[in-house]
């Protein structure tokens, strides 16, 4: 039996390091589920009770594992239910790929049962990359780009698969004009600030008399560095929700979380400091905050 497009989809994701998917089955995507079953556990499928929860699970998996989160759902309402969870991933800058089914290619545009313009639906939440496959040879570069862009941009991407395409024999792209030949692999770049920017940040911090740090998810894995900076600046540290694991709460100068569900000491420190250094919290910069009056 020749490899189907669905079999290739599963094997390609496995090559990318995907080991689990979160979702809910349905007719529009069941051929991919058949391929998952044939793969004999190469990729674990975790079934949610609702597609929305599957997207939240994929986002949470990305947040706490540092890996790509993948959610999968059927066409029509199955795909639309993913959107809320996908916005959670996008707003928290997490790499998540949504794989959704679609009606047969010949029926699209005919107001067929549960037909939804999914490319338009996902255009905002997955604006960096959302595409619908139309031929078997196209699937390879769509998967590769969807995964690479999700990881590189730390964002949501989406792949739409018509149900008749899923069952077709897979074809490698031809070696001819008008074709693309993509590969597996992504390495995160090392980003280093300009010396002038570091000098400017140091000048601002040196002016501060009451310095505070706000750390977020971007500081995970940099505990020693955050400790050293806080010690040098004699600064208190508050934590964004996703940065809770950066430092333990029992340190005397750690004030806990910030925000609507934050602590009173964190709120007081943010109001009373004159210099705020935000590290890995979505806004990595130092800002001098002059006091009014």
Automatic annotation (TrEMBL):
Occurrences of domain Thiamine pyrophosphate enzyme N-terminal TPP-binding (ranges): 4-120
Domain annotation Thiamine pyrophosphate enzyme central: ranges: 198-284
InterPro entries per record: DHS-like_NAD/FAD-binding_dom, POXB-like, THDP-binding, Thiamin_PyroP_enz_cen_dom, Thiamin_PyroP_enz_TPP-bd_dom, TPP_PYR_POXB-like
Alphabetized Pfam families for the sequence: TPP_enzyme_M, TPP_enzyme_N
Name this protein carries in UniProt: Thiamine pyrophosphate-requiring protein
Lineage: Bacteria, Pseudomonadati, Pseudomonadota, Alphaproteobacteria, Hyphomicrobiales
């Amino acid at each position: 039996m020749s490899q189907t497009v669905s079999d290739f989809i599963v094997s390609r994701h496995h090559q990318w390091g995907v080991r689990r998917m979160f979702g809910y089955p349905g007719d529009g995507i069941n051929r991919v589920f058949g391929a998952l079953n044939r793969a004999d556990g190469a990729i674990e499928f975790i079934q949610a009770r609702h597609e929305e929860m599957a997207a939240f699970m994929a986002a949470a998996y990305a947040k706490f594992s540092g890996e790509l989160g993948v959610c999968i759902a059927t066409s029509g309402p199955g795909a639309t239910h993913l959107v809320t969870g996908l916005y959670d991933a996008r707003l928290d800058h997490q790499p998540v790929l949504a794989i959704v089914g679609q009606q047969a290619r010949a029926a699209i545009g005919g107001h067929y049962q549960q037909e939804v313009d999914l490319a338009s639906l996902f255009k905002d939440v997955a604006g960096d990359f959302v595409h619908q496959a139309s031929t078997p040879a196209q699937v390879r570069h769509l998967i590769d780009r969807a995964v690479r862009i999700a990881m590189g941009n730390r964002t949501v991407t989406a792949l739409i698969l018509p149900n008749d395409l899923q069952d077709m024999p897979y074809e490698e792209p031809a070696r001819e004009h008008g074709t693309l030949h993509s590969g597996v692999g992504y390495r995160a770049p090392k980003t280093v600030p300009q010396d002038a920017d570091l000098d400017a940040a140091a000048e601002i911090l040196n002016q501060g008399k009451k310095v505070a740090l706000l750390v977020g998810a971007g500081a995970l894995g940099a505990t020693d560095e955050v400790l050293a900076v806080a010690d040098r600046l004699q600064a208190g540290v508050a934590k964004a929700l996703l940065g809770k694991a950066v430092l333990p709460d029992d340190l005397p100068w750690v004030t806990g979380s910030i925000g609507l569900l934050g602590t009173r000491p964190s709120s007081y420190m943010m109001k009373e400091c004159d210099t705020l250094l935000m590290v890995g919290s979505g806004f990595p910069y130092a800002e001098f905050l002059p006091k009014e009056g």
